[in-house]
Amino acid sequence: MSQANDSTTTTLAPATTPAAPSPQPAYQQPFVIQVGSGFVPVVYHPSRDTPYLRMERLRRKAKSNPDEALAYAARVIWYRQMRAAEKRRRLEALSSPWWSSDRDLLDAAE
């Protein structure tokens, strides 16, 4: 058998550039992690700076179906947004000049 001729040049893979990182969403996202035979709902918080706090696992609400777990995580996000909006509206109403002028009238009457 004849051996291959030695080549003085080596062929390398063409230079590749790393892919651009995909933009992360700026809002909370629900998803599911499979643990054993169950599915754990997870809420992703991209705005949190500490890496281990970005994933909020709702372990006690594990489901047997991934669709149920995803629906639960989405419901948790919706509920928290609803409560935050209520809190914001309440604070806006209390700091409104309309309310403060009524308070001044009540204080003056006493």
Would you kindly provide a written description of the structure presented here, covering whatever features stand out?
This protein has 110 residues and is of the alpha+beta class. The chain has one domain (29-109). The chain is built from 2 helices and 3 strands. It has helices spanning 66-94, 97-109; strands at 29-35, 38-44, 55-57. Strands 1-2-3 form a 3-stranded antiparallel sheet. Strand 1 and strand 2 (38-44) form a beta hairpin.
Walk me through the topology.
Layout: E1 29-35, E2 38-44, E3 55-57, H1 66-94, H2 97-109
Antiparallel strand pairs: 1-2, 2-3
Descriptive tags:
15% strand; single chain; 2 helices; alpha+beta; 110 residues
Strand order of the largest sheet: 1-2-3
- What is the strand content? 15-25%
Order of helices and strands: EEEHH
Helix/sheet category: alpha+beta
Largest sheet, in brief, is: 3 strands, antiparallel
- Tell me the Rg in angstroms: 28 Å
Form type: elongated
Gap between N and C termini: 113 Å
The total count of helices amounts to 2
Poorly predicted parts: none
- Number of structural domains: 1
By DSSP, the count of extended strands is 3
* Fraction of residues in helix: 25-40%
Mean pLDDT: 80
In short:
This protein is an alpha+beta fold and 110 residues long.
